[in-house]
Q: What sequence folds into this?
């Protein structure tokens, strides 16, 4: 798959400490970089406005990570067939985007998820460790693929296939719903290894709220499980109809 078919999407919300470094490393990939400011109210807007060579897209208020990614996907789809999503908190090495691109099987239109290596390290937040296992299990129960890192935000998406999936979640839950729906619509989902950086003593910006987002996760998984059961029941009833 040619790199010239790819763009980079970076959803941003109040990442003033790390976003400049992430963007500059992403620019070294020599792909179009779309930075989506999801209603930041710190210094993030002025920081990203001062970086040349990127396309800045803005939400007037915070709509959620999923909404920001969709905004970036729609803009990128005008000129590119694929989009690499990279988190703005500095945990990813943008150069690992090439790992995802190289791992795409020839001729496949698929989602490549960056499986983060080193997630068992002592500097990795407990919420990230617990959330990874929790999400992996419920993605599978919901009818999605069996993955080792279903919460990774470092991914390669095929455009416009992902835009046509009808994903309803607009916050962090977007990233689990999109791979469940992809599986149900026969879009393959694979993993490729990427590095992760959780430095000792370094301040990491995370907008994940354990209680609120646990409730949102529960709502999303409940909806997806119901959808799976309903679809299975409908298929069973259809198979029992007498043939004319």
A:
């Amino acid at each position: 798959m040619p790199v010239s078919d790819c763009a980079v999407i970076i959803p941003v919300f109040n990442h003033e400490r790390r976003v400049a470094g992430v963007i500059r490393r992403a620019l070294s990939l020599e792909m179009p970089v779309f930075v989506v400011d999801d209603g930041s109210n710190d210094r993030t807007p002025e920081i990203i406005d001062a970086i040349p060579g990127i396309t800045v897209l803005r939400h007037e208020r915070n709509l959620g990570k999923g909404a920001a990614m969709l905004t970036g996907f729609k803009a990128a789809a005008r000129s590119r067939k694929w989009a690499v999503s990279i988190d703005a908190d500095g945990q990813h090495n943008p150069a690992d985007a090439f790992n995802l691109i190289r791992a795409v099987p020839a001729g496949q239109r698929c989602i490549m998820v960056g499986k983060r290596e080193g997630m068992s390290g002592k500097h990795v937040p407990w919420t990230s460790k617990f959330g990874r296992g929790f999400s992996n299990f419920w993605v599978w129960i919901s009818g999605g693929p069996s993955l080792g890192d279903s919460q990774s935000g470092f991914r390669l998406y095929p455009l416009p296939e992902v835009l046509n999936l009808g994903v309803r979640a607009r916050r962090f839950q977007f990233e689990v719903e999109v791979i469940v729906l992809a599986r149900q619509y026969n879009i393959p989902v694979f993993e490729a290894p990427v590095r992760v950086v959780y430095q000792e003593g370094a301040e990491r910006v995370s907008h994940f709220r354990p209680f609120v987002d646990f409730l949102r996760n529960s709502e999303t998984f409940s909806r997806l499980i119901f959808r799976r059961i309903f679809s299975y029941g409908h298929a069973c009833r259809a198979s029992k109809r007498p043939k004319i």
Q: What stands out?
A: Confidence is low (pLDDT under 50) at residues 200-204, 232-244. The CA atoms of residues 143 and 228 lie 7 Å apart. The chain has seven helices and seven strands.
